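Protein record
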Amino acid sequence: MARSRKVTVSTDAEGHTAGWAETDLAPVSAPDPTAAAFFDVDNTMMQGASIYWFARGLASRNYFTSADLARFAWQQLRFRLLAREHAGDMSVAKEAALAFVKGWRVDEVERLTEEIFDEMMAPRIWAGTHQLAQRHLAAGQRVWLVSAAPVEIGRVIAARLGLTGAIGTVAEVCDGAYTGRLVGDLMHGPAKAEAVTQLAAVEGLDLSRCAAYSDSANDLPLLSTVGRAVAVNPDGTLLRQARQHRWEVRDFRTGRRAARIAVPSTAAAGLVVGAVTAGLALQRRRRAG
């Protein structure tokens, strides 16, 4: 009989994760190989968007300017508030994602992500959501993150949080560097449900025994695919759907946070990398000059 590991989470005055320590739990029954949990990242596992904080980390390392970052933040806030989720926006997002990764070394992106996670993302992990994930692990289930962000970023976050792994947007790699082409589409909306269904087939999961967690109505296809859907820090549309379907609702925000959008969220992850792309090009021009 296996023993599970518990992550004890400490939080600051605003409810963010300040740190955690692993301890042994009592033995658990044999794991259920057919059950698993899938967690969205942005505003579900983490306050704000992981790719936004990655961009902030790049800005602090002078890859691009604060003005570039501020311009992106406004554009994405406007995108979220207006709910402009249509084919044209996704096309722009995909092109931006392609431009961002072209020529970058995979190991460099992973190294930067590890540094930036520790500096900027870890303090913004929602302690309550992290504890939900730990409950699944303690029950012998596997836990995956599912995000529109590049899969390399998702994998770093999953590893840092002690989770099983991550599903994310995949960029083509040749000789250790990104080619500028995506493998498939952005991991967004219906693509998340399709990816989880494919993973379930490979891993022998029974989706009716699985759970999914998200803050956004964009993830309704994913939430509808599993047997247990949980709305975490839900937007208005998802909250209405959760009540209609009698899904569980968890809100780890304070009243003040629930009433406003503090930082951008990646309804389309490519919008942030578009700002990163512009910043990197500017930085290269400055160095060339």
Observations:
- The CA atoms of residues 100 and 273 lie 6 Å apart.
- Residues 1-28, 79-88, 256-282, 284-289 have pLDDT under 50 and may be disordered.
